[in-house]
Amino acid sequence: MTEAANGNAELPARISLVVSDVDGTLVDPTKALRLETIAAAHRLRDAGIALGIVSSRPPRGVKPLADQLGLDVFGGFNGGSLVHSDLTPIEAHVLPLAAAQTTVRVLGENGAEIWVFADGEWIITDPDGEYVPLERHTVQFEPTIVAAFGDELARVGKIVAASSDHAMLDRVEVELRALLGDQASVVRSQEYYVDISHPTADKGHAVRGFAHYFGVPLSEIAVIGDMPNDLPMFDVGALKIAMGNSRPEVKSRADVITGSNDGDGWAQAMDRFVIPRAPKG
Questions:
Q1: Which of 81, 103, 138, 167 is the most exposed place for a label (fewest CB within 10 A)?
Q2: Could you give the dihedral angle defined by the CA atoms of residues 188, 194, 200 and 204, in that order, rounded to the nearest 10 degrees?
Q3: CA-CA distance, 233 to 17, in Å (whole number)?
Q4: pLDDT along the chain (281 residues), means of 10
Q5: What is the spatial distance between Cα 220 and Cα 98, in angstroms, rounded to a whole number?
Q6: DSSP per-residue codes, 193-247
Q7: Distance between CA atoms of residues 16 and 269, nearest Å
Q8: Are 245 and 255 contacting, i.e. CB atoms less than 8 angstroms apart?
């Protein structure tokens, strides 16, 4: 089911590029691409509309999906990294060392699982962490296990706090934002994950990167997502689409709302709201 979120919104007449979130949006709850999603991506291409995807995942964890969709460029680390299909960087931003050190200290004091993504690796100290199996399934590669974090903190693409204690993560999110200020981006990518990355690592930055890459004006870009870390896309894109499974604050910022990611909500959004606005001629 799709619906208008803001009856007074004036939707753009032309869309030449879609920028999509991945988890909770492009993939279903099992982290897989539905057949109808793949088919809809092909319909976009046939209509002359480019597709870019950006995720909180590391680029290495986005690549299998990008390969399935035949994408030439995609983003990871909430927009902190844009890469070609062979993972060669277009741009990459690392977390300042002092911010990384503060983050690890605060997360350790609060009892969160700590994951460091650096040098193309997923680095952890606890292989038995609660969310390690899920992340392994999501990114499709194995973690590197260390006794303690060290030199890699100077080359961090992203640090993740993982926990089923959502109230604790709420507190950590607030504390880190206050401590780190403009030295880092602190965002919730899932109810059970807080992501800490470079201050310019937001998905609005990624939208601008895709716009430059494809030569498309911001006025012709549709964005689609479900979580607060997707809201910077809504600040930049011309057509803002929320998934049916989105948080309320995401739905409130959307022009239109589509179905959930446990169905064909993504494909429905492309067919109803995007493809009818394809470039003509």
A1: 167
A2: -20
A3: 13
A4: 58 97 97 97 97 95 97 94 95 95 98 95 97 95 96 96 97 97 93 93 94 97 96 97 96 97 98 95 54
A5: 39
A6: EEEEE-TT-SHHHHHHHHHHHHT--GGGEEEEE-SGGGHHHHTT-SEEEE-TT--
A7: 15
A8: no
